[in-house]
User: Which sequence fits this backbone?
């Protein structure tokens, strides 16, 4: 008999959520005191401290809940690595996902340009949530490339996907955890995060090892960050003026990326659908990994 819980279905969810909400509230209060102490200055440093604390809290709470309910933390990953041509293909799909995500902004604005009613309502909101703050590249690299991928993959793939896969089947586990991942990334306009969530979920199910979705998540965020730097939007005020001028007109600067989005998104949809339909087993990566751990014991 296994020394660990063989399935993830009994992993608590609401206990984790309310602990995380309380921790986040405490960290927000810390952020307020730091802002007062620094008299509103050093916004990037304060954001780096508070966001790092939030991710650390999510990590600690997730791991502690697993240990409390006799779930093997090492069961989140297989006791071996899979190498080979599959990884090369996965890297190419990651690049395609990053291209799709980055070009989605242009596609969305191009479509809305010919829907005046929606354009006037949605575009100011899109610009506000997407470029609301002037965040430094150093902050983005540390949080988005180094910290967030590790913690988010442990929680969304390691915890949520395994739980829902054991409860409802691996396909629903992939979809539910990807939708949850998308839902918390408002500033990314949802669709890009749904795509990267599906990518990381499919890769995790394929390799049963968290290191792969973590590295792909890091690579994806790095590619999008580099693209944002290379194709800089410039001053937010200038960007708003340029975007608002799109209303009811074509812009080659936005049309070409929009075409790229349609092609890349179509290819990505086909690839995801083919792999999704090829899934045959019903159990979670965790349940399989625990069996392997028992065999090696």
Assistant:
């Amino acid at each position: 008999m296994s020394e660990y819980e063989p399935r993830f279905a009994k992993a608590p969810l609401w206990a984790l959520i309310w602990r995380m909400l309380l921790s986040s509230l405490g960290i927000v209060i810390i952020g307020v005191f730091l802002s007062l102490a620094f008299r509103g200055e050093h916004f990037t440093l304060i954001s780096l401290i508070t966001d790092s604390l939030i991710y650390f809290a999510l990590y600690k709470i997730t791991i502690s809940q697993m240990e409390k309910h006799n779930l093997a933390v090492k069961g989140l990953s297989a006791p071996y690595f899979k190498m080979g041509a599959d990884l090369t293909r996965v890297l190419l799909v990651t690049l395609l996902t990053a291209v799709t995500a980055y070009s989605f902004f242009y596609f969305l604005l191009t479509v809305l340009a010919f829907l005046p009613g929606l354009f006037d309502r949605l575009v100011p909101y899109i610009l506000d949530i997407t470029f609301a703050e002037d965040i430094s590249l150093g902050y983005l690299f540390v949080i988005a490339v180094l910290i967030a991928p590790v913690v988010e993959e442990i929680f969304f793939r390691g915890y949520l996907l395994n739980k829902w896969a054991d409860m409802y089947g691996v396909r629903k586990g992939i979809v539910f955890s990807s939708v949850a991942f998308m839902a918390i990334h408002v500033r990314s306009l949802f669709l890009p995060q749904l795509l990267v969530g599906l990518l990381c979920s499919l890769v995790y199910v394929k390799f049963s090892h968290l290191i792969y979705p973590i590295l792909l998540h890091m690579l994806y965020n790095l590619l999008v960050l580099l693209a944002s730097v290379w194709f800089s939007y410039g001053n937010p005020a200038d960007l708003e003026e340029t975007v608002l001028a799109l209303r009811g007109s074509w812009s080659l600067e936005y049309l070409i990326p929009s075409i790229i989005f349609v092609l890349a998104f179509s290819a990505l949809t086909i690839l995801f659908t083919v792999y999704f339909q090829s899934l045959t087993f019903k159990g979670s990566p965790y349940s399989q990994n625990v069996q392997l751990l028992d065999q090696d014991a």
